Amino acid sequence: MLQTSTPKLPPQRDLRQFLEEVYQGRHLQAFRAGQSIPLNPQDIWIVCRGVVQLSTLYQNGDEALLGLACSSMPFGMPLSLIYPYQAIALSDVDLMCLTVTEVQQSPDLSQEIFQHLTRRLRQAEAMLAMAGCRRVEDRLRQLLILLQMEIGQPAAEGTRLSVRLTHQHLASAIGTTRVTVTRLLGKLKDEGWLKLDRDRHIVLF
Fold first, then answer.
1. How far apart (Å, rounded) are the C-alpha atoms in residues 41 and 123?
2. What is the 3-state secondary structure (H, E, C) of 97-155?
3. CA 168 to chain centre
4. pTM of the model as a whole
5. Domains of the chain by range and CATH?
6. Contact criterion met (CB below 8 Å) for 17 and 73
7. Distance (Å, rounded) from C-alpha 166 to C-alpha 72?
8. Residues 152 and 144: beta-carbon distance below 8 Å
9. Cα(88)–Cα(72) distance, rounded to whole angstroms?
10. Rounded CA gap, 78 and 97, in Å?
């Protein structure tokens, strides 16, 4: 299952710094939490600040979480075979838009993006492994550990998830109901595994 501590990886330069050096003067595009991000066949978005939720819809209307694009991570239609494919700002975000042609014509940019695509690959593998857990509680625990790695920030006690996630967000990610997630979060809280801070952010111990 997902390790609570990941092996040390070579340090990666912040892709935002690289983009600012190469594309001086290009404006970032800002989206507020909850806004849908337009997706075009030739555009690749780079997250400069915040977290973007990537998801799809089943024929019955249920939503399935595909992943979270965090700082420096790329996403967009050229990087996915899923349809429908949607991206929604989970927090306030700043994004930079690049075309596929721009990426293809710049070896340095392609290399930078590849390094951060490996983060998305590891995340996708973790979510696939999580989906194989039969017990819903195990899937929820694994999801929270993954979120701790991706969007966790050191806090006075434990690790605080930097984005406020609703019970429905968590339910969609692990294929269960909001009521079940509410019950299990209460259980994990009673066990001393997590708590909610004053802003309703999850803090993991």
1. 23
2. EEEHHHHHCCHHHHHHHHHHHHHHHHHHHHHHHHHCCCCHHHHHHHHHHHHHHHHEEEC
3. 15
4. 0.81
5. 15-129 (2.60.120.10), 135-204 (1.10.10.10)
6. no
7. 24
8. no
9. 16
10. 13
pLDDT digits (tens, 9 = 90+) for 179-201: 999 999 999 999 999 999 988 89
User: What tokens appear for 167 in the block?
Assistant: 């019970």
Match 């984005």 to its residue by tokens. 163
List, for residues 113-159, the tens digit of each pLDDT value.
Answer: 898 899 889 998 998 888 889 999 999 999 999 999 989 999 988 99
**Main-chain dihedrals φ then ψ at residue 170, nearest 5 degrees:** -65, -40
The answer to whether residue 111 scores a pLDDT higher than 60 is yes
Give the H/E segment covering residue 57.
Answer: strand 52-57
CA atoms within 13 A on the CB side of 59: 0
Q: Give yes or no for residue 64 having a pLDDT over 50.
A: yes
Q: What is the pLDDT at residue 176?
A: 92
pLDDT in the model for residue 115: 87
- Residues 51 and 90 sit within 8 Å (Cβ to Cβ): yes
* DSSP letter assigned to residue 158: S
For the sheet with 29-31, list strands across it.
29-31, 93-99, 43-49, 74-75
Tokens of 162: 């930097």
